[in-house]
Structure formats: structure tokens, C-alpha cells
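Quick log. Single chain, no ligands specified.
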Amino acid sequence: MAGMKTIIEPFKIKSVEPIRVTTREERVGLLAEAGYNPFLLKADDVIIDLLTDSGTSAMSAKQWACIMDGDESYAGSRSFYRFESKVREITGFRNIIPTHQGRAAEHILFSLLGGAGKHFASNTHFDTTRANIEVSGAEAHDFLTAEGKRPEFRAPFKGNIDLPAFKRFVDEVGAENIPLCLMTVTNNSGGGQPVSMANIRETSVFCRSRGIPFFIDACRFAENSWFIKTREEGYADRSVLSIAQELFSYADGATMSAKKDALVNIGGFLAINDDALAMTARNSLIVTEGFPTYGGLAGRDLEAMAQGLEEILDEDYLRYRVRTAEYLGERIVAMGVPIIEPPGGHAVYIDAKRFVPDIPAGQFPAQAVSCALYLEGGVRTVEIGSVMFGKRDAEGRHIAPPMELVRMALPRRVYTQSHIDYVIEVVEEVWKRRAELKGLRFTYEAPVLRHFTARFEPLR
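-> predicted structure:
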């Protein structure tokens, strides 16, 4: 594709899945039945599903062939050893522990290291990560760089950790009370923004100087490696594989939801260099997930993950992947729609604070925009703001997070440019009528991870 202006999908479509096209009138009733929570909509009632890029990838012909080739032996499966070899080639970690998805790896890790009085640090913890930390009794602290908190500000690595702030925090609470620092690449809750290799390296050096284990949340490691290749000095001529290998070399372990950058519908892993911690983690795995060579997965899933980890490093694919998000972002910014700039690798994030400035945080502006996108065109998105991350003080008053975002996550290898053009038209129509949008209030609120099951009603 050298010299071409149009970056095409670097794959052919071999199988198709029909989309049911609903009317606006139907969607009014469907959204009300779902309690104005897109998570509670039936997938068949969604035209374009941008709720998440997790587990929604289209697998390749080779991955489907791997499904047939999976070894379903309970212990010592050939498929496990292929999977282990591929993860070790990319990450270099000694102990590779398969899990059914990323939050299972997080649960094992934080249940072993967490507990009351413990503090975990990150550039930004995602929702399930934070929940698994807090369920253990520990606290999760985010140290996003200052530029990452300014949606309109363009910078190449807005997902970085604020290292000076993190260092001050370590001095305040004591390194002995910080069992782990977790670097999320790319930074999902921070707008899908990448983390620079320099920031990863410097954080690693500091953590090791203070005896704090340093881990990577590796869900989108390949996309982050592509941003390093294209944005960071000294990496343009390096392969994405070699960049990923360097990235992991600075860490003591990793968690990964393979449902993102391994291009599969289920799967994940926990990787650890510490042999004693790995042994304890495997014992926990046996109780909760399964034998250490299958970890809650079928052999066919392990085969598909291994193949996906090969395919994700294809640079033609990564160029197309990142360009798709850029295209969507550029088109809606041209209309005046405020987003986190520049677009990240897996999603475009609408800045709801600027989209509907008259709706206060306690009335969930991003949820209101998300509902409007579904009503207008059947496009399902997800709120990342006061519903997902808001808290209450001792008197029950709402405490808003720094940003109110609507994430339009792009499933891998699923939608074509015409689908993205349709999304752009839907955003445009909602943007034209943004003054008509109203806030919402809870009618049901779960105590943990409330955004998954909450129900709302519109404010009149």
C-alpha cells in the first residue's frame, strides 16, 4: 500500500453476519425497556455495536482452523505449549498462566497482593481492575499525566503516568505499602491514549529502585507498540514485535485480556517472573479457573489466542486499525464535535462535558449522549464518566471523575468504512440537536461496577 492515499482493510470478508435495522420508533421503546442503559439492550436490537472492542473481534480463517486443531487434553495440552511459547516470545516472562479473560487474571493477582492498607498505582486503572483491587480491601490510585486530563490538548503520549506525582505518593504512603504499579497500555480510561517507551522505562527504573513490582496491563500492547513506532524518536525502523519485546522487558509481569489484542472472543493470561508468586497464583487458578495448562479455556481457545498474537503484530493491520480511529475522529471534529485528541488506537472518545455543557455531572451527561446515539441511529456506545467512575461522599453527594466521556470502541476486523461513515452521520445528527438532550437519574444502582446493570429514567 506504499504511496496510496487510501488505507484499505488488509483482509477479505469470508463470512457475514446479518444486521437487523430497527426504526427510531422501535428504539424509543427498546431503550426504555433497557432502563436507558445500553449494556441492557439486546445485541439484535443494535445496528452498529461500539460498546466495546473486548471479545468482539472477527477471527481469521487461520484462527478458525486452529479451533479444529485444538488439543482438548485436560493436562499438558499441545495447544497450551503453543500458546505459552508465543506469549513468552513476545513478553519474555518466565511463568505464563492462562485465564478465561483479563479480569480473572486481575482477580488472582490482586487477591494475592491486595488487602486493607495496601495501595496500587497506575497511569489509570480500568473499571474491572479497580473493582478487583477494591474488593480485596486495597485502594487504587491513578496518576495520569496532566496533559492526559485535557481532552482538547494534542500530544503524542497522553496515556503516560505522572511520574513525579507517583514518586511523591510513594514517599507519602511508603513503598512497603504499594504491592504493585500497573501501567495500562494503551490507557483505556484515559481515552485510549498510548504510553511512551521512555515513560515505561523511567517508571520501571524508579519502581525497581524502591522495590515495587512493575506490571503491564497488556490488553492493547500491539496498538501501543505501533504508536511508539510511529511517534517516538528512535523507533521508526524497529519492528512492532521488537518494540513490544522491549516494552515487556522493563516489567516484572503482566495481565492481559486476550479479547483485545489477541483477536479472540475469550481468553487471557497472567504472566509473572517471580516463581514463588507464580506458584501461589497457579494454586489459586486451580481452585477458580482450572488446571494450569488450560486455565478455564478449551484447547481450541488457546490455539486461537496463539494465532491471534501472531496476526496482531502485522504492521499493515495496525496501520489500518489506527487509521480507522483517526478517520472517525477527524470527520466528527470537523463538525465541531469535541473529542479526546488525538484519537487513540481502539476507540474515539466524545467529551460529553463540552458536548452537553448544560447537563451537570450528577445527571450523567455522557450517559445522555450515549442514549441519544442509540435513539438516533441504533449505535451502541459506552459511558466512561460519572456512571462508571463516580463515587459518593459520606453524605451521599456525588463526586464526579475528572472526565465525562462517551467511548466509541471499534471491534477489530468487523466493520467497513461504510459502517464508520454511518456512525459519523449519526453523531452529526445528535450534535445538531444536542441542546435538546436531558440528564438522567438512577432508578437502580448496584454497589459494585454499577454501570453494567444500572437502570435510569430521563429527567423532565
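The chain has two domains: 24-53+314-458, 61-311.
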